[in-house]
Amino acid sequence: PEREIHLSTQANSTNAAALEFWRQAGVSRVNLARELSLEEIAMLAGRSSVELEVFVHGAMCVAWSGRCLISSALTGRSANRGDCAQPCRWQWPLVEPTRPGEIFTLEQDRAGSYLFNSRDLCLIEHLPKLLELGISALKIEGRMKSRYYVAAVTRVYRAAIDAWYQNPEAWRCDPVWLEELDKVSHRPYDTGFLLPRRDAATETASSRYVRSCDFVGVVIEGDGGLLVEGRNRFCLGERLELIGPGMRTESFIVEELSRPDGTALEAAHANYQVRLPLPDGARPGDLLRRCRPQDA
């Protein structure tokens, strides 16, 4: 067949022998296991005859890539098919085999324990290290993520990659990129296995996500247009941000709000179409978000 075959990170490819095996099997690109260090990736990049892909952003698993069957066993949802129920985030008791029936509470604080709560991967500050190796593709977690998450994260990495190719020597991580990545729902960020450990705190001490902005809608008509499928409630007088490709971000206040038939509204709700004035240049597909005050 002429179709290209790309191998998932779930195959747990960690060494040159595995890459050669998959090349002979007809695979043209391998998404490497997330457990590899930069030094190990560099070694494989220098010896591999297949294209390499590396995860740079998204949730990290407490198990080795492709080797966790907890979700499949407990819920029938296969992690290897992209449908992980994330049971590692559930609350788990401690049981001692010689004391059947006794369950011990495992607590790090009053909210519970977090032994399985890994942080989220974020390698944007270290992109040059990977780009210099000639990595063919950088992978961002998108499965089971919202349209807003995918759009917001992808445009940041696109801007960072383009900036490096334009002038590698002058490349610096723009603080705006980091601010944008903080505006999507995530756990505390970490560099995972890429760099030598600075400390042992790879787990996060909370099961909560960090989220400073709410996704509130999608533009379906620009220039004075329509907003469809509001994802969260927003009200007249609130300040919103319109975001689009190329790091385009416009802040504005909702000064008018109505149904498509012109009936005035005080608030917009999820799954309803509403009309409101938008910043000049708004285009179909642009997204609207509401950011919370920094001290909220």
CATH class of the largest domain: Alpha Beta
| Helicity range | 10-25%
Spans of at least 5 consecutive residues whose pLDDT stays below 50 are none
- Second-tier CATH architecture of the largest domain: Alpha-Beta Barrel
The total domain count is 2
Describe this structure as you would to a colleague.
With about 300 residues, this protein is of the alpha/beta class. It has two domains: about 5-65 and about 120-190, TIM Barrel (Alpha-Beta Barrel); about 215-290, Translation factors (Elongation Factor Tu (Ef-tu), domain 3, Beta Barrel), CATH 2.40.30. The protein is built from six helices and 16 strands. The chain has helices spanning about 15-25, 40-45, 70-75, 125-130, 145-165, 175-180, and strands at about 5, 30, 50-60, 95, 105, 120, 135-140, 190, 215-220, 225-230, 235, 240-245, 250-255, 265-270, 275, 285-290. The strands form four sheets. Strands 1, 2, 3, 6, 7 and 8 form a six-stranded mixed β-sheet that branches. The longest helix has 20 residues, at about 145-165. The chain is globular, with a radius of gyration of 22 Å. The chain starts with 5 loop residues before the first strand and ends in a 5-residue tail after the last strand.
Question: Care to give the gist of this entry?
Answer:
The protein has helices spanning 16-24, 38-47, 70-75, 127-131, 147-166, 175-181; strands at 6-7, 29-31, 51-59, 94-95, 103-104, 120-122, 137-140, 189-190, 213-221, 226-228, 234-235, 239-244, 248-253, 267-268, 274-275, 287-291. The chain is an alpha/beta fold. The chain folds into two domains: 6-63 and 119-190, TIM Barrel (Alpha-Beta Barrel); 213-291, Translation factors (Elongation Factor Tu (Ef-tu), domain 3, Beta Barrel).
